[in-house]
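pls design
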């Protein structure tokens, strides 16, 4: 059953084959948006992780929503160009862009391979900027738009003595997320006059996804670990991508903090 909060709008969600991206795609479609979902994994069983674009589209359509899958490797500029061209050809100009795709390695700086460093920055920093550049003119022409960058608490500076994440090699992950957040606030200022909202959203707690389980950030055998379900951050994403752009922009926020703030009637 669909609602109408995003009726008539089009959205592109990257990294949507599983986890947070899949949940955001489902939530936006449930509110009436036509959603293009992208990732590298198209079919079930073709990745080391559970989830695929076909499964995301199936989940959206079985609930009455509208979604299309467009595979792309966001580490490659030519693939990013093709993604936007195909998305606009299939669903029309993009109203909402959600930059969620990520490739992450946890290695100490002393052992961090340059190829992995480049790949992480390409997917999590350069790709969001490139995709934003490619959709901004259409948003400006439409008189409104929403860009949402999915970040992480890893962007925060570590305290000392360090916790286990930092001892385990979280520095580069923190670097790319910090860069993404600074890009968010800078772009929000640049496109204020164009009536385009740009925000950064992080989960308030670690989200149990195939990726976080693989990296041992979630411990499935620990009933006492406090986690946040993907649906929570999807609800916060909806709030950031459905309100008048100038009413909620330039924010670096955490999901539960934002939802609590909005529950009080702000902003």
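designed seq:
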């Amino acid at each position: 059953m669909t609602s109408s909060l995003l009726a008539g709008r089009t959205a592109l969600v990257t990294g949507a084959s599983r986890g947070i991206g899949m949940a955001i795609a489902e939530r936006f479609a449930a509110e009436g948006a036509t959603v293009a979902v992208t990732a590298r994994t198209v079919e079930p069983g073709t990745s080391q992780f559970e989830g695929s674009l076909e499964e995301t589209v199936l989940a959206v359509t079985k609930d009455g929503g509208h979604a299309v899958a467009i595979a792309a490797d966001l580490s490659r500029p030519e693939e990013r160009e093709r993604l936007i061209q195909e998305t606009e050809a299939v669903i029309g100009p993009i109203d909402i862009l959600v930059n969620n795709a990520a490739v992450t390695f946890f290695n100490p700086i002393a052992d961090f391979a340059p190829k992995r460093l480049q790949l992480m920055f390409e997917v999590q920093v350069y790709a969001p900027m490139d995709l934003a550049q490619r959709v901004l003119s259409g948003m400006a022409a439409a008189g409104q738009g929403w860009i949402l960058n999915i970040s992480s608490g890893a962007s925060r500076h570590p305290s000392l003595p360090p916790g286990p994440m930092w001892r385990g090699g979280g520095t580069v992950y923190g670097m790319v997320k910090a860069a993404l957040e600074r890009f968010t606030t800078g772009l929000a200022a640049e496109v204020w006059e164009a009536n385009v909202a740009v925000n950064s959203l992080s989960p308030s707690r670690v989200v149990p996804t195939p990726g976080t389980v693989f990296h041992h950030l979630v411990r499935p055998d620990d009933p006492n670990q406090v986690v946040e379900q993907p649906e929570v951050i999807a609800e916060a994403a909806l709030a950031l991508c459905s309100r008048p752009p100038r009413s909620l922009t330039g924010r670096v926020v955490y999901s539960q903090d934002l939802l609590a703030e909005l529950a009080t009637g702000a902003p």
